[in-house]
Specification:
binds 3-isopropylmalic acid, 17% strand, disordered N terminus, binds magnesium ion, single chain
């Protein structure tokens, strides 16, 4: 924690020159420079980096170098600005999302977040929790659509706790509503009931426009995938879910080519481990999406592999690995940077429309896994155990080797 806090301090003092603050992940930068020099940048994007807490700074450092290299090969130049967020922002300026961080994020073309949170701030009051900063960031950027893919890679099928025949070939996408529902609904708070007993309460509420817009994102997503959408709710009990289902059915009229089904959330939780291959695209509310996307991630074997994209109808998207800050392994060079690297690929694809650069990164990750490199969380016998930095260097080598292939 101390290291990430001091890193933040440096960044705030020099917000304009963040590119030189992180140690390069690769020990062989000359090849990178060479590649960058041969392609004249034609496009420039500004990216806000929010390293955050725990393993966040380590994985963001790797992703930044991968972005730089993949970008340079596609004539793209990035201007990175690192800003404090989460626990490290709390230590630095006393709030989990400083105004400067939100305004920098809003002005940029895309935002890449590492992870936030840690034991140190767990007992803080709610408005001083790192998680509150993340919710404020999602709200501030109005990123209502959270895409969380869960793909079982053939290289990692043995990392799944499910039987091989159940896990292999799983390729699903959870589309989670991110700025509404019980996370934000009012009234909320603590109080006393008529018996004088203390209570805590929240409100699950959705308006028409909120369900309609997330449903449209989900139908569009399903259309680009395998054309199947399953809407998950608890419409047998909750009014908010009955309403959700009614609106999803109404929007479905615009997408006759997409096959729509509905499932109660308890059944969906069961089906995800029973037969996950039945799912293509899942759309659900904020809290069910939070839970089901963690469950879906475990089918793939490691939460350390899974990226996410949060998108609004305009403005920059927010891209982050779905894993947390893992304070127990922070600053030990043990973290798996691949979820953040793949989040950078989602940033290119969904945030900037730079599909070629995104593909380069995705291919490089697959090649690195094919070569047998594994961090501890995805390690199995016969492979090569590496740390966060070395994994990053190997991904860089694979991105770089695609130059030769492209020439
Ligand atoms: C997630 C996390 C967050 C959430 C927390 C950290 C606020 O669990 O992104 O899934 O509940 O949305
Ligand atoms: Mg979660």
């Amino acid at each position: 924690m101390a290291a990430s806090a001091s890193l933040m301090k440096i960044n705030v003092q020099h917000p304009i020159k963040p590119m030189f603050l992180l140690k390069p992940a690769s020990q062989k930068p000359s090849r990178i420079r060479c590649a960058a020099a041969t392609t004249k940048p034609s496009k420039r994007y500004s990216i806000t980096l929010l390293p955050g807490d725990g393993i966040g700074p380590e994985v963001i450092s790797v992703a930044k170098h991968v972005l730089n290299l993949a970008g340079s090969l596609e004539g793209i130049e990035f201007n990175f600005q690192e800003m404090p967020m989460g626990g490290s922002a709390l230590d630095l300026v006393g709030v989990p999302l400083p105004e400067e961080t939100l305004s920098a994020a809003k002005k940029s073309d895309a935002v890449l977040l590492g992870a936030i949170g840690g034991y140190k701030w767990d007992k803080n009051e709610k408005h001083l929790k790192p998680e509150t900063g993340l919710l404020q960031l999602r709200e501030g950027l109005r990123v209502f659509a959270n895409l969380r893919p869960a793909t079982v890679l053939p290289q990692l099928v043995d990392a799944s706790t499910l039987k091989k025949e159940v896990a292999e070939g799983v390729d699903l996408m959870v589309v989670r509503e991110l700025t509404g529902g019980i996370y934000f609904g009012k009234p909320r708070g603590f109080g006393t009931n008529e018996d004088g007993e203390e209570i805590g309460f929240n409100t699950e509420v959705y308006a028409t426009y909120e369900v309609d817009r997330i449903a449209r994102v989900a139908f569009e997503t399903a259309r680009k995938r395998h054309g199947k959408l399953c809407s998950v709710d608890k419409a047998n009990v909750l009014e908010a879910s009955m309403f959700w289902r009614k609106r999803v059915i109404a929007v479905a009229a615009e997408y006759p080519d997409v096959e729509l089904s509905h499932m109660y959330v308890d059944n969906a939780a069961m089906q995800l481990v029973r037969n996950p291959k039945q799912f293509d695209t899942i759309v659900t509310n904020n809290i069910f999406g939070d839970i089901l996307s963690d469950e879906a991630s475990m089918i793939t074997g490691s939460i350390g592999m899974l990226p996410s994209a949060s998108l609004g109808s305009s403005g920059p998207g927010l891209f982050e690995p779905i894993h947390g800050s893992a304070p127990d392994i922070a600053n030990q060079d043990k973290a798996n940077p691949l979820a953040t690297v793949l989040s950078a690929a989602m940033l290119l694809k969904y945030g900037l429309g730079e599909e070629n650069a995104a593909k380069r990164i995705e291919n490089a990750v697959l090649e690195t896994l094919n070569k047998g490199f594994r961090t501890g969380d995805i390690y199995s016998a016969g492979n090569k155990l590496v740390g966060c930095k070395e994994m990053g260097e190997e991904v860089l080598k694979s991105v770089d080797s695609q130059v030769a292939a492209a020439v």
